[in-house]
Amino acid sequence: MRFKLENVKLKGAPLSFLREEKVPVKTLESFFYEYFLKNRNLESFKGGDSLFIDDMIGGIMEAQKIKPSAPLRFGWGLLTECNSKCIHCIAGDALKRKKRTNLNEIEYILQQINELSPITVILTGGEPLLLEYIYTILKKLKENNFVVHLLSNGYTLTERNSERIGDTKVDLVQISLDAADPIIFRKQRGVDCFEKVTEGIKYLVMNGVRVRLNFTATHVNLNQISFVYDLALKIGVSELNFNPVIPLGKGENLISKFDYKKYVYEIIKVYYKHLEIKPSLILTFSLPVEFFYLIYELIPQKDIENFKIEPLIYMYDENTSLSCNEIGDIRPGSSLEDKDFIIGNVYKESLRKIWRKNKVWFRRLHSTKCEFCKFLFFCRGGNPGVTYRIKKTIHAPYPYCPIKW
User: Fold this and answer.
1) Can you give the pLDDT at residue 39?
2) CB within 8 A of 225, min separation 6: which ones?
3) What is the pTM of this model?
4) How does strand 211-217 pair with strand 239-244?
5) Average pLDDT, the chain
6) pLDDT for 330-358, tens place per residue?
7) CATH of domain 45-257+318-358
8) Which of 31-35, 60-64, 354-358 ranks highest by mean pLDDT?
9) CB count, 10 Å around CB of 125?
10) pLDDT tens digits, one per residue of 312-325
11) How far is it, in rounded angstroms, from Cα 33 to Cα 370?
């Protein structure tokens, strides 16, 4: 589950922790109370932000256990081609297809998106900037008043195309930046273009583009989290997000090497530093399920009694969004990558029809350890896509959760 942090007032933060290599138990406890309990309010969202709208509408949908008449988000994978060799890539067999959406398909899907009327359209790949029609797509979507996000690795950014991106009035460009050091960047991404990416980010900022940096943490770059935070402040991007590696695709081979304790500690360091200096930068991060294992004995049940929920979990992402890949297959949400979750194809039936027949998704975690876990409200059973890959069902606890019963 993702939470959003923006200039939250901190009371009694153990700032000496910033200079320590290990996090005291007390700091873990303080972090949970400050971040998860005191920071869960609408004031941490900017007014007008599409995430604010998503959260508000999604909250209503979840309370009533229904889905909206149209998805809030539509993710569009334009191609599988990529100019990166990331050690954590989750794409898997999709990279073998080497398919690009052609111009006729683009025009058709744009028409389908207009009829579907989501709030936000998220353009992904592969690497979407390799598609020659990307500027046309951005322009058309903005002409039709969609909130548009573009997700890129930034390798092809130049002064000229950054200006073209800015001219489209795209709402946000997310650039993957997993290190502030060129050598570690190359180890993680498999290409030697750290300077080119950082220069491209600067060009985007100069052209008035709202930029989010996205950092995927692996065993290779854990010591880079605070350095990337400093770099984000220096460049002047709008947002910075940290994620732990996901055990899908290539990431499955990295999970045994990943030190989730160190990741949590590094995130907490950045969290407290952020609260201390209060920049305009918006900081977001995902915490692994293992975090709740670290704090399980520290947080009494009575302190989180108000967050107790039934083990019938409303699947927020699957009930509020659709994803389309480069061959037109449609899935609910963004984490259920297996072919078993394809609910239609845009070239065979309309997006509106596919959405109407999409069921309301729930995870049934009755009679599992999740039913008795006091942190179920926060983790929601973990990533359902990962769970399905290993268990062949979404109705099971996250397989990497170390909490035992």
Assistant:
1) 62
2) 215, 217, 242, 263, 266, 267, 269, 270
3) 0.90
4) parallel
5) 89
6) 999 999 999 999 999 999 999 999 999 99
7) 3.20.20.70
8) 354-358
9) 26
10) 999 999 999 999 99
11) 21
What tokens does 360 get? Answer: 């309301």
**Is the alpha carbon torsion for 61, 67, 69, 75 positive or negative?**
positive
Residue 7: the pLDDT is 35
- CA–CA dist 75, 122 (Å, integer): 5
Q: What's the pLDDT tens digit per position in 145-164?
A: 999 999 999 999 999 999 99
* CA distance from start to end of the chain: 23
Q: How many of the other CB atoms lie within 10 Å of CB of 99?
A: 18
Domain boundaries, the chain: 45-257+318-358
